[in-house]
Design brief:
Length: about 160
């Protein structure tokens, strides 16, 4: 099995596992308080907004890394970005977030499939969290991040 196939399997498994959790939430559960940063009291739907928006952002980091560009500015404030991105999504529905997750997941898989040189998976860049990781790790972090939030939400509101 190629590295890309292995990454794809991981992305698909994490994707399915997170959606299985999310799809079991009731409309009432989406409105319950959820774990978030201290200065950003979020409901479960805000966490869903966060993960939906983050996938496109992380894909942008992958694209810039592959091109040899700076992935995120040195002064990038992840907490501020997360708060603001959720605020911008306040008028969207849970269904909108699911649609965005599916659309961006397809883009992530297409970006993985577009890699023709396995050495590109070893290129490194700074993730929005501040750590330096490989392109392979960037891909895995996308769905791993979503699954981690889904599991946290399941404990908090389930």
């Amino acid at each position: 099995m190629s590295r890309q196939d292995s990454i794809r399997q991981r992305l698909l498994a994490d994707h399915a596992a997170s959606l299985k959790i999310f799809n079991n939430f009731t409309p009432e559960q989406w409105e319950k308080p959820a774990p978030s940063e201290n200065d950003a009291p979020w409901k479960a739907r805000d966490v869903l907004a966060h993960v939906a928006v983050s996938e496109g952002g992380q894909l942008g980091q992958i694209t810039r890394c592959l091109a040899g560009d700076v992935t995120v500015p040195d002064d990038f404030d992840l907490a501020r970005f997360n708060r603001r991105s959720v605020q911008k999504q306040a008028d969207k529905s849970v269904a909108d977030f699911f649609a965005l997750i599916e659309a961006d997941h397809a883009k992530v898989l297409a970006a993985l499939d577009a890699i023709t040189n396995e050495a590109d998976l070893d290129k490194t860049g700074r993730h929005a969290r501040g750590d330096i990781i490989t392109v392979e790790q960037f891909f895995i972090r996308i769905t791993e991040h979503r699954l981690q939030h889904a599991e946290e939400l399941q404990k908090a509101v389930g």
